[in-house]
Write a structure and sequence with these properties.
Blueprint: H1 10-16, H2 24-35, E1 41-44, E2 63-67, E3 72-78, H3 85-100, E4 113-119, E5 130-133, H4 150-156, E6 167-172, H5 183-193, H6 205-211, H7 219-242, H8 247-264, H9 269-276, H10 280-288
Parallel strand pairs: 3-4, 4-6
Antiparallel strand pairs: 1-2, 2-3, 5-6
């Protein structure tokens, strides 16, 4: 008997299943293992970045949540190679900070943002599969670390300067060697293989194993999920053959083709939106031209 079970990919789960408060425990488990502290999700946040904006077409986050410390956590999953991705995540975090500010709010009230990026391609040069980025100020002469004084600690409710600024996590899935040395690695194994071993004990994985079972999807959504998987494989093949030449044009055409197939199969607009990222208006317009 196999000791693993094939599960829904995490990106699909984020788009369809993990947005439900009933399933927050799965996300809380993943975030707790990664951030090394107990995370409680207060609510799911909608972002201006997620709206249908032609200028921001490729600057959309998959999920934004607020934790018990009122910090905003961005989760984005990226399959396609993007050479300017490091600047993209900087843009996404900056926009989230600005969106979270209220009019006439003092700077002390700026929300801390944590950006978690699950990547299925090589980004930069490095041997590790998880990278953590923070902002620190180091003395040019004495090489000391700039800290907060007691009044600042009380004002910001933070213990260090770097705790004020955004944090970035880059998880390079394809660099993981499938050997789970700790509970975070168990999550990385799942993210890479869509499988959870019986021996795994990481927080949230048991809930994930139950909730993300492909066979429990309604038939219509299972077909949409299978089409989505075919789309990912096709995009990967297309990129390898073209190595980026005319890639964005090709991706737009692929997205349109997938949407047409789903429309012809009678899929609901909400499912087509989740699979392709096309706006409801764009899907409705496309449907008018489908025989």
């Amino acid at each position: 008997m196999s000791n693993t079970r094939k599960l829904i990919t995490f990106d699909w789960a984020i788009k369809r299943l993990l947005r439900s408060k009933a399933n927050f425990g799965i996300l809380e488990g993943f975030l707790s293992e990664l951030l090394k502290e107990e995370i409680t999700i207060l609510d799911l946040l909608e972002s201006e970045s997620n709206k249908d904006d032609k200028l921001d077409k490729y600057n959309r986050v998959d999920l934004r949540v607020r934790n018990q410390k009122q910090e905003i956590i961005i989760i984005e999953i990226q399959y396609d190679r993007e050479y300017d991705y490091l600047q993209r995540i900087f843009y996404g975090v900056s926009k989230t900070v600005i969106e979270g500010m209220k009019e006439k709010q003092p700077y002390a009230g700026i929300t801390k943002v944590i950006s978690i990026n699950i990547l299925y391609f090589d980004l930069g040069i490095g041997d590790d599969y998880i990278y953590h980025g923070t902002t620190r100020f180091i003395g040019m002469h004495n090489h000391d670390l700039l800290g907060l004084n007691e009044k600042q600690k009380k004002l910001f409710q933070k213990e260090s300067v770097e705790a004020l600024y955004p944090e970035y996590y880059l998880i390079r899935i394809n660099r993981f060697n499938d050997i789970a040395r700790d509970r975070l690695d168990e999550w990385i194994y799942f993210l890479k293989n869509e499988e959870i071993k019986e021996s795994f004990t990481a927080k949230g994985l048991k809930e994930a194993e139950e909730t993300l079972n492909i066979m429990k999807l309604p038939e219509e959504e299972r077909k949409a999920y299978e089409q989505y998987q075919d789309d990912l494989r096709y995009q990967a093949s297309m990129f390898e053959s073209s190595y980026g030449d005319g890639y964005h044009t090709g991706r737009e055409e692929t997205t349109r083709t997938i949407a047409i197939k789903l429309i012809q199969q009678g899929a609901e607009i909400e499912i087509i939106n989740a699979v392709t990222g096309l706006s409801v208006a764009a899907i409705e317009d496309l449907a008018k031209s489908v025989p």
